Amino acid sequence: MNWNDLRYFVVLAGEGTLSGAARKLGKDHTTVARRIEALEKDVGARLFDRLGTGWSLTDAGENLVPVATKIEEDVLAFERQARGDETAHGVVRIAVPPVAGRILFAPRLAELLKDQRDLEYEILGSSVIANLARREADVAVRMATPDQSGLIARKLTDIRYAVYAVRGYTATVPEKDWEFCADGRNSFGDYQQGWVWEQLNRQLPMRVKSDDTQTVLAFVAAGYGLGLLPRYLADEDDRLELVTDDVTNELSKPVWLVVHPDIRRSPAVRMVMDALIKATEAIPDRYKC
């Protein structure tokens, strides 16, 4: 059999139509149909039912999908290893939250640039989620579980949070006068507040809300109340003191690496993804869970 026909099989199984598979493969639909028919002849089984609405897998086809997918992945892995000395070229657009990007990921990404002279970055440092399907970014680091379909996502770790204040705040400010600088990001901010109220056995006034972690830190460091901050950021700031730690990790935030399947095999994108994964592995254990 022609092993290249397996790729046509895997793509058509995923797309469900000749036109969809042809677009993804960069071929015309007659070529796709011809390669599938050749594969069916080689294996001696009908793999698809030809319907008016598309091509539907038969039972035999369903059984072969995971096997064919594994073979395709192994072949691609072989090719990548065989080209282990290839270099990365071009621009990779990376969407990453600004604070995490600067502190956790930039050093490792900078090391990659030193090794790959033809590689360039466009860093999208924003809390707004980039649309990978529209190529607003090639690779994204997200501090929330991805919910967009059609993307490949890998959970890297969970980031720990704790409550902080400027040094001396809890000793000099009467507890009845304490205030809280809140995260203004929807449900996470609401959950933050509820957790803090439970720990302190009382609600605190909130006159500042922000969707930017650096802004929360700035207000806390300036002496305005308490704030819930990531430990990798606040523990390194000598102006702050730990007030209440989240020992059960209830407020930890997930870190996800997300990429569109169409470009994940690009050498440049693969190298960037590897750098982001290694950067996460290098985060001290006290800052993640």
TrEMBL record:
Residues 1-58 form the HTH lysR-type domain. Keywords: DNA-binding, Transcription, Transcription regulation. InterPro entries: LysR-type_TF_proteobact-type, LysR_HTH_N, LysR_subst-bd, WH-like_DNA-bd_sf, WH_DNA-bd_sf. Pfam families: HTH_1, LysR_substrate. The keyword Transcription regulation applies. It comes from the Bacteria. Belongs to the LysR transcriptional regulatory family. This is HTH lysR-type domain-containing protein.
